[in-house]
Write a structure and sequence with these properties.
Layout: H1 2-25, H2 59-63, H3 67-75, H4 100-114, H5 141-148, H6 167-175, H7 183-199, H8 207-220, H9 239-252, E1 255-257, H10 276-286, E2 301-303, H11 308-315, H12 324-340, H13 343-347, E3 352-356, H14 361-365, E4 373-376, E5 391-392, E6 418-423, H15 430-438, E7 446-449, H16 461-466, E8 468-474, H17 483-489, E9 493-497, E10 516-517, H18 526-531, H19 535-548, H20 563-578
Helix pairs in contact: 8-9
Subcellular location: Golgi apparatus membrane
Protein name: Probable glycosyltransferase At5g03795
Main location: Golgi
Length: about 575
């Protein structure tokens, strides 16, 4: 009888528990992942969308934390290295800017998170694995990123985008016979942007405004620098202005990082793959004690810490060709922070910035984040990229996060016997034209492949780049390509074939001093164009490629003039000239 009473009590308890679980927690307590769930908030996101079907859910469901999570977030100070993030064993190398005590505390908190979030770095880039010692480097990096780039095209990509362009861009494209905005014309647009903001300059109304105005005056009237031991003047549009901007950034810039929102879309840096730039920047900025401030009223800039890769991977429905729910998520996020703070409403977002490397980021952010400073890998001036406001973000492929520098360097000029090299997937309309004109064995000087022939004694992708004079960097579906930075890594002069592409750090770097730009229509004449470059000119460009390389390198701990600081400087520079 006692056993029956006990069983009855247990039954009643289970019934009540299930009612509360379903009624108030949507079955989340002790629930197991269903085969129809793409993810649970506390579980990992696998890189393959096919293995994890989409579970219909609203963007708001993924955006807001529980009350306990929000209160926990408030207790985390901005001096913590990783806010709301997890780093497993693969990510230990990126615990930056902290002493041993800080690092120990971080490891303890991360160990607790690790039980909830089992995502490994290998999951983020399907098809590649690092050995336990991380000594094995995948040489054919082309294969790694080509296989993971999304090939689905959004319907919005086919919409006319002319209404998003400024009148200046429209006039340039109308005057140009090819409809292409040249590097010189891009520079004119940048200058016009700075001039127009100067004419609208208002009297500073706050200490932050005064600091920005002071910085602008200093940058416009810098001390003249003709020679610098660390910076080679011909690489820059104006070395004196760049140096002064950089120095003022180091001394004055303060960034407020919003803590609101939850993983995996927010506060979840992805450190591996073709979109690694946005993840490395997120992690290194949030760990910075130099630039991050806890006091938003002292901030010159406000960072929106979302991952465009995780946004797509988490919310995009395969085959839908629509990014409406991704845009809805970002809108809900902005609604949340603007209802809690007045900083967004005060400026309309013009002092806010985002760093996003996914191909779809421009279309996802152009509606509700149009006034933000957008650091974008897909920097297409013909599709709404605004020179003087937006920043061209380098697309860097990271295969082994513990060793982000990979195998740098290449053969000396005397041993670079191949004139030109390209190998990669036939994405978009341009690459098939390149292959049609120069593929196969048509010309022994032009090594153009859709896939590197696999036979004994053949060079790998990396070996080709290290022993080639000119590395061809054609656009794929979009204007950007990781090959541009890869060419710099392997000291190969990049040949950029991508009309209307704004190259990285355009505000600062004179790309025509170390790279070659070829119009898409001139592909049939590619070899003649390259042969027309004198040996003296080529050697000078090769030397400059080696000198500019340091601006595109990720270090486990940021170094002066590296890619982290260059991204931040371009954002700071555009912010100053909007003031």
């Amino acid at each position: 009888m006692k056993l029956l009473r006990f069983a009855g009590l247990v039954f009643v308890f289970i019934t009540i528990f299930q009612f509360v679980n379903i009624r108030f927690y949507n079955g989340a307590i002790f629930s197991l992942p269903s085969s129809q769930d793409k993810f649970l908030v506390s579980s990992s996101i696998n890189g393959s969308t096919e293995e994890h079907p989409i579970r219909p859910s609203s963007a708001a469901d993924l955006l807001y934390s529980t009350s306990s999570s929000r209160s926990a977030q408030r207790e985390i100070t901005s001096s913590d290295v990783l806010v709301g993030e997890r780093a497993g064993p693969e990510e230990d190398h990126v615990l930056l800017g902290s002493d041993n005590n800080d690092t120990n505390q971080i490891h303890e908190s991360l160990a607790e998170d690790d039980a909830k979030d089992k995502e490994t770095l290998d999951d983020l880039l399907p098809g590649t694995r690092s050995s336990s010692s991380d000594e094995k480097i995948v040489e054919d990096t082309d294969v790694a990123y080509e296989n993971t780039r999304k090939v689905e095209i959004l319907e919005s990509k086919s919409d006319p985008l002319v209404d998003n362009l400024s009148s200046d861009v429209k006039s340039f494209m109308k005057v140009s016979n090819s409809g292409v905005v040249s590097i010189t014309e891009m520079m004119n647009l940048l200058h016009q942007s700075h001039t127009s903001h100067a004419s609208l300059r208002l009297k500073p109304s706050s200490p932050v405004d005064q600091e920005l105005l002071y910085a602008r005056t200093q940058i416009e009237n810098p001390p003249l620098i003709e020679n610098d031991p660390l910076l080679h003047a011909p690489l820059y549009w104006n070395l004196s202005m760049f140096k002064r901007s950089y120095e003022l950034m180091e001394k004055k810039l303060k960034v407020y990082v919003y803590r609101e929102g939850k993983r995996p879309v927010l506060h979840k840096p992805v450190l591996k793959g073709i979109y690694a730039s946005e993840g490395w920047f997120m992690k290194q900025l949030k760990s910075s004690k130099t630039y991050v401030t806890k006091n938003p009223r002292k901030a010159h800039l406000f960072y929106l810490p979302f991952s465009s890769k995780m946004l797509e991977e988490t919310l995009y429905v395969p085959g839908s060709h629509s990014d409406k729910n991704l845009i809805e998520f970002l809108k809900n996020y902005l609604d949340m922070i603007s209802s809690k703070y007045n900083f967004w409403n005060k400026t309309g977002g013009s002092d806010h910035f985002l760093v996003a490397c996914h191909d779809w980021a421009p279309s996802e952010t152009r509606q509700y984040m149009a006034k933000c400073i957008r650091a974008l890998c897909n920097s297409d001036v013909s599709e709404g990229f605004v020179l003087g406001k937006d920043v061209a973000l380098p697309e860097t492929t990271i295969l082994v996060p513990r060793r982000p520098l990979g195998a740098l360097g290449g053969k000396p000029v005397s041993q670079r016997q191949i004139l030109a090299f390209f190998a990669g997937g036939m994405h978009g309309y341009l690459r098939p034209l390149l292959l049609q004109s120069w593929g196969g064995n048509r010309d022994p000087d032009m090594k153009i492949f859709s896939e590197i022939p696999k036979s004994k004694g053949k060079k790998s992708y990396m070996e080709y780049m290290k022993s080639t004079k000119y590395c061809i960097c054609p656009k794929g579906h979009e204007v950007n390509s990781p090959r541009v930075v890869e060419a710099l890594f392997y000291e190969c002069v990049p040949v950029i074939i991508s009309d209307n592409f704004v190259p990285p750090f355009f505000e600062v770097l004179n790309w025509e001093s170390f790279a070659v730009f070829v119009l898409e229509k001139d592909i049939p004449d590619l070899k003649n164009i390259l042969l027309s470059i004198t040996e003296e000119r080529y050697r000078e460009m090769h030397k400059r490629v080696k000198m500019v390389q340091k601006h595109f390198l990720w270090h486990s701990k940021p170094e002066r003039f590296d890619i982290f600081h260059m991204i931040l400087n371009s954002i700071w520079y555009n912010r100053v000239f909007q003031s």
